């Protein structure tokens, strides 16, 4: 279906208005979102995405609507995996809790610009070269294989090449100055770690785009659908980050589910490439008579894989153990870091979570206790957090 210029302009205006609203009413004044606030606004953004999908279904037809929902669900699932990496980056840079919203919003805006560029580049390549479907399919199969490899926090280290270059040529302070990107220290204008973490988030977004854009092109080649499904999957990601805080570690099988989805779409792309084949060394340049997987079937497979993945993760005892260990370490470190937050209620929330996780650690099955890296160091961290909390109570 041809999308009119008016529909494009209206859609872009709505997206810009939502981003502006997000900044001026939520992010401009630094604060820590409550669980209720994060839940309400996450629901609103998901609701807006679904309403937009219904509009596409009504005005664009069943095929276009199905393509939108398949693309949206896939991109949303990939964005949840991205949140885990964002968590690692912000922990590495010790971003104050109050200022994490601004970093996330920057990441979303940067990602929208970067992915829009990749979308139009991908569309131009597809229209010019049919063999691009082979290339996109191969990328997704390789990515699926990489997701099956065990990962640690070190594999997403914030100290990457871009950051090292930035540190080398720009003087950087050790401390944050609110949410400022630059500050004056000893009479010199210097960059704060806030700018560095934004560079890290932006660089990571570029890498994510290399996977996500081929994935959605495997479901639809309609540029309007690709663009809107991608953008709406990113909207509300900031709120989702705070809503899923502590739950991300529980999604122990998420990487396996995403690997299955990307492999499925990769195979779908290669089958489509064979059906449209014009490469001289494949079947003498003639199309190959193969089955093609419909978008409706793709949507069913994607949703099915995600449902199984989430249920299996939440039911997994290993997942609960992993979440407990990671949460205890993170909350102990954050509680001891006095620069992490100036909000006393947030510090108390962290301490309460730590107490709960400490009790769960004591009850861990011996086979899961082996998952604790540097157990002595973790126990020492928790002990120091108790001491810090006792000292705080005495002062007050």
From TrEMBL:
Going by the entry's taxonomy, the superkingdom of the source organism is recorded as: Bacteria
- In what way does this protein cross or attach to the membrane? Multi-pass membrane protein
User: Membrane-spanning residues where?
Assistant: 6-26, 38-62, 68-91, 103-125, 131-148, 195-217, 223-244, 251-273, 293-315
Stored Pfam families: TerC (PF03741)
Subcellular locations according to the entry:
Membrane
Please provide the record's keywords in A-Z order.
Answer: Membrane, Transmembrane, Transmembrane helix
Membrane listed as a keyword: yes
User: What is the first-listed, main subcellular location in coarse terms?
Assistant: membrane
The UniProt similarity line reads: Belongs to the TerC family.
Among PANTHER family, the record links this protein to:
MEMBRANE BOUND PREDICTED REDOX MODULATOR, THYLAKOID MEMBRANE PROTEIN TERC, CHLOROPLASTIC
Put simply, this protein is called TerC family protein
Please report the organism this UniProt entry assigns to the protein.
Rhodococcus pseudokoreensis
């Amino acid at each position: 279906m041809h999308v009119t210029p008016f529909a494009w302009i209206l859609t872009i205006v709505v997206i810009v208005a939502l981003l502006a609203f997000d900044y001026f009413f939520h992010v401009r004044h630094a604060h820590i979102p409550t669980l209720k606030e994060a839940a309400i606004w996450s629901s609103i953004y998901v609701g807006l995405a679904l309403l937009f999908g219904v509009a596409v279904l009504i005005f664009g037809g069943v095929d276009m609507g199905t393509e939108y929902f398949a693309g949206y669900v896939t991109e949303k699932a990939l964005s949840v995996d991205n949140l885990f990496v964002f968590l690692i980056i912000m922990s590495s840079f010790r971003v104050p809790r109050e200022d994490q919203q601004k970093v996330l919003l920057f990441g979303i805006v940067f990602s929208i610009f970067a992915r829009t560029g990749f979308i139009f580049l991908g569309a131009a390549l597809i229209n010019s070269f049919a063999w691009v479907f082979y290339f996109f399919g191969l990328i997704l199969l390789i990515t699926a294989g990489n997701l099956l490899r065990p990962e640690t926090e070190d594999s997403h280290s914030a100290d990457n090449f871009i950051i090292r270059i930035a540190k080398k040529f720009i003087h950087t302070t050790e401390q944050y100055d609110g949410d400022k990107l630059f500050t004056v220290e000893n009479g010199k204008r210097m960059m704060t770690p806030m700018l560095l973490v934004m560079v890290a988030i932006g660089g990571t977004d570029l890498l994510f785009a290399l996977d996500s854009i081929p994935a959605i092109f495997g479901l639809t080649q309609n540029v309007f659908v690709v663009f809107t499904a991608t953008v709406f999957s990113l909207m509300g990601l900031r709120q989702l980050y705070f809503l899923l805080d502590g739950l991300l570690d529980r999604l122990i099988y998420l990487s396996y589910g995403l690997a299955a989805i990307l492999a499925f779409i990769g195979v779908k792309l290669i089958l489509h490439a064979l059906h449209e084949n014009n490469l001289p060394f494949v079947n003498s340049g003639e199309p190959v008579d193969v089955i093609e997987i419909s978008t409706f079937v793709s949507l069913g497979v994607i949703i099915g894989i995600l449902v199984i993945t989430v249920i299996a993760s939440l039911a997994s005892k290993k997942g609960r153990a992993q979440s407990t260990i990671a949460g205890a370490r993170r909350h102990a470190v954050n509680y001891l870091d006095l620069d992490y937050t100036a909000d006393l209620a947030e510090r108390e929330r962290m301490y309460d979570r730590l107490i709960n996780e400490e009790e769960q650690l004591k009850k861990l099955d011996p086979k899961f206790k082996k998952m604790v890296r540097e157990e002595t160091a973790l126990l020492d961290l928790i002990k120091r957090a108790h001491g810090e909390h006792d000292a705080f109570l005495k002062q007050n």
